[in-house]
User: Fold this.
Amino acid sequence: MNERDTFVEKRRAFPNARPARRALFRRESSECEPSHPSQGQRLAVEKVMRSEIFRNAVVNLLVVFADHLAMKGDQMMLATTPAEPPAIARARQYITEHCGEAISLGQTARAAQTSVCHFCKLFRKHTSLTFTEFVSRVRVEKAKRLLLNPNLRVSEIAFEVGFQSLTNFNRMFKRIVRRSPTDYRAQAPADSIHQ
Assistant:
């Protein structure tokens, strides 16, 4: 028995199915008036409202997921890997320990026990970041932790993590985190639960 035979048999078994559906549709559509919404219309509106709420919830969940993924990506980028040369590990440690101070490329190269030129090439190759970008990211990560403390002002945090101006701190923070320090702090209680 092929598909056509099955279709024909179903039509024979229920010969009045199509006219009955049409009559039901006509009856429902004639009962619906704009001034008095039917139960079906109310349910349809509620369903749309629920779908809008659902869509907003999904969008919010995706935003939280994206923020968390970006945060973990930043942390992984700053983490030491076992396959990197000892000079890079020493440089990372030096930057992390002295991020609150003014750090120069020459000081870091000396701490890594390499020349400045060799250090720049090696550092870029193993971290995929320039020295300045890496230092900024380390400082912003430290600032993110400090922003969880509501007793510290943003300006205090900026200078404590090593930025020389509040404007530069705000610009770098927004570029790396994609929101201002104040916005980050406002949303931090929800985010800090997931850390």
Summary: The mean pLDDT is 79. Residues 3-31 form one domain. The CA atoms of residues 147 and 153 lie 8 Å apart. The chain has two domains: 3-31, 68-192.
